[in-house]
Design brief:
9-stranded parallel sheet; TIM Barrel; 21 helices; alpha/beta
């Protein structure tokens, strides 16, 4: 029985409801009157539900698809402006007891180099990341109660926050670790994490159990209900995601939106972020072994419709995707991207040869952070290293109310410019500095509030004179 307010996985992600939704979408994919009505509703900026959005995903009328893309672009501008937040993943350990068939960290893989960072290793890794200019990390670790207990994760977070190298500092640590208990989520909250991220991989229960044949992750309900436990533990910023390519994309899309609706219905706060990774080649994993891969065009459509359906959420595209694909989807709603990522344990500070044997997936965009920042600015975006909302307590419902009313722009725009100025002063190449200062001078004029604009001007001058970490 479908019930978005239920705390049972099979009731808030109902297989029957998804199948009925897909049948409804097929029946109405050429219903121009309904499609126009849904596009019009989406223009009210309050989103669409899973059934409405599924109709638009099924629709392949070219001019209607272009309308969706145009609307997604406008909604992104309305909510997030032209800012793109940058982050990097940090892999702590690839020890894992699970048997996930799509991940090279699975327990049966005996030839991958297993590694776990010591606190000394973390200092080296984070120093290397700070020397690039990163301010925000997403830590990743396999599920292994012996090698990666919660105490280890908490110690790592404490170490990361403690490292101050030159002008560098990691100001926000997001956490992507396995589903855990309310008690452990409370500990993560107390450690000062930003967003708790957990990918569902697939919402199709039968497929989920086949893809996770062994280990604690096999438990579909425990995994799917993790966000409710995280919220109960006090973490009010959570990030959803599926691994596209494992199951039929339309099924996953509906399930993803149902999960967002469930969080809104129960907790009054939807997902802070939604990620859209696609399965990629890695060590003993061949993506062609999974027969639900999606084209770049379908991928772009999914991104656009997530933006239309969940206008307030941040949308993340990682370096799994190539420069060309990222360029294609940036205008369709993406608000966060990773840059200069390493998907191996110790990949930032270690010799490149060691990295090859411990990557979680092949990176498609191998550019340096400076190259990514330069590229974004030339496309007309403001690369942002801002972490102000998290550190000012604008999380959960406080962030969402500001975002939904579009008031968040009043602080995000100047904060983005100030953190970009820090990056330009401390880490950028000469050419990137030049492009960046031209962008900052142009964008300062776009701050609507005269008082805020004046303060931002002053702070940017202060940054030139060696001061750091201003925020609205």
């Amino acid at each position: 029985m479908y019930n978005p307010k239920s705390l049972k996985a099979e009731e808030f992600i109902s297989d029957e409801e998804i199948k009925e939704t897909l049948a409804y979408a097929d029946a109405n994919k050429n219903n121009v009157e309904l499609i126009d009505k849904l596009i019009q509703k989406a223009k009210e900026l309050k989103g669409l539900n899973h059934r409405e959005a599924s109709v638009l995903l099924a629709c392949d009328i070219p001019e209607k698809v272009q309308e969706m893309y145009k609307l997604a672009e406008q909604i992104k501008k309305d909510f997030y402006g032209n800012r793109i937040v940058l982050f990097a993943p940090l892999y702590l350990s690839n020890y894992c007891v699970n048997g996930c068939v799509y991940c090279p960290y699975h327990a049966k893989n005996k030839h991958i180099a297993r590694k776990k960072l010591t606190q000394e290793d973390i200092i080296k890794e984070v120093t290397a990341l700070q020397d690039m200019g990163h301010k925000r990390l997403a830590i990743e670790a396999g599920e292994d109660p012996v090698n990666n207990p919660i105490e280890y994760i908490l110690e790592c977070i404490k170490t990361i926050y403690s490292i101050k190298h030159k002008n560098g500092a990691i100001r926000r640590v997001n956490v992507n670790i396995a589903a855990t208990t309310v008690e452990n989520y409370k500990k993560l909250k107390e450690a000062g994490i930003g967003t708790y991220i957990l990918f569902q991989e697939t919402y199709h229960k039968e497929s989920y159990e086949k893809l996770h044949p062994t280990g604690p992750k096999h438990n579909y309900a425990y995994h799917t209900e993790a966000m409710d436990r995280a919220m109960e533990g006090g973490i009010d910023d959570v990030g959803l995601g599926v691994l596209f390519g494992l199951e039929l994309y339309r099924y996953e899309f509906a399930g993803l939106l149902m999960h967002a609706e469930h969080l809104e219905a129960v907790h009054g706060v939807g997902p802070h972020t939604i990620s859209v990774p696609r399965i990629k080649r890695a060590d003993d994993i061949d993506p062609t072994a999974f027969d639900n891969g999606i084209s770049d065009d379908i991928f772009a459509k999914i991104c656009a419709l997530i933006r239309i359906s969940v206008p307030y959420t941040g949308m993340i595209i990682s370096t799994r995707e190539s420069q060309s694909v990222r360029e294609k989807v940036l205008p369709l709603g993406v608000s966060q991207i990773s840059g200069a990522s390493k998907t191996s344990v110790g990949g930032y500070a270690d010799d490149e040869k060691e990295e090859i044997t411990s990557e979680q997936f092949d990176v498609s965009d191998n550019r340096t952070l400076d190259e990514v920042v330069n590229w974004l600015m030339k496309l007309g975006y403001i690369p942002s290293f801002c972490t102000a909302c998290y550190r000012e307590g604008r999380t959960g419902d406080r962030f969402m109310s500001l975002c939904k009313s579009r008031q968040i722009l009043n602080c995000c725009h100047p904060n983005a410019l100030m953190t970009l100025k820090e990056y330009l002063e401390d880490y950028a190449s000469d050419e990137t500095q030049k492009v960046g200062m031209e962008l900052i001078n142009k964008e300062l004029k776009n701050i609507p509030n005269e008082k805020v604009r004046k303060i931002a001007y002053e702070h940017i001058n202060d940054i030139s004179n060696g001061k750091r970490d201003f925020r609205f």
